[in-house]
Amino acid sequence: MKVERRNLAEFTTLAVGGPAEVWTVETPRDLVQATAAPYRVLGNGSNLLVSDRGVPERVLRLGGVFAQGSLGRPRSEDAPHLSPWIGAGVLLPTLVQEAARLGLSGLEPLLGIPASVGGAVRMNAGTRFGEIADVLEAVELFHEGAFRVLDPSELGLGYRTSRLPGGAIVTRVRLRLTPAPAATIEARMAEVDAARKGQPKRKSAGCAFKNPPGDSAGRIIDRAGFKGHRVGAAMVSPEHGNFIVNTGGARAEDVWALVKRLQEELGLELEWEVWGEFP
Questions:
Q1: Global pTM?
Q2: Where would you tag: which of 224, 242, 252, 259 has the fewest CB atoms within 10 A of its CB?
Q3: 217-258: per-residue pLDDT in tens?
Q4: Which residues belong to the active site?
């Protein structure tokens, strides 16, 4: 196990965030030790805004055995494929590409989502084409000093949310995928990729706001004329209104001020998780 004092900007896709004590846990024993004091769990740092002041809690990153696992090869072309256990620290894009190589369908809707597997489960990551809940078979949690396996139906998975017990850490998952021809998988991935073409390439934390029923947060922001609006080096993306991007050297306070203005003006619900104190 490694313990370091680091700026969390190094670990977030928005590239903002202040100092914290970062614990990289590699074994179940490490996890027991690291959770003996107040903690937060950091996946791939997407969908997350961290204060410039950092956080006082330990920040846990899953490495070692928690960042290992693969989908395994399908045994039959005519039956669903149940994967081996996959560590929650594995990156979701890695699994999406592995599934395509193996001829396994089900993960195509998650193409382009820069999350860890554990983070994807906690927020029920997805797109308009589908979400990770669609392919979950079982989830292992570490909670109150013990590991337990739950059926996905026990996690309260909804639109970009879950109801995991307080302090619970996703440690491993099993997925149920479907063998399919390579051409079918490629076509589905191309469709998802085409739908993401308008998304910005600059540093961001992903979609900032949840889509209201029957509408799109991006369209609401666009209609209100906020595309390109800035606070410091934080900007509403000109390409897609539901992305706030770091144009270079942005502070979390810049991002927060921009988020709050959009919320106050448009009544949108924030999709990101927020860590730490803000002015």
A1: 0.92
A2: 224
A3: 999 999 999 999 999 999 999 999 999 999 999 999 999 999
A4: 160, 207, 273
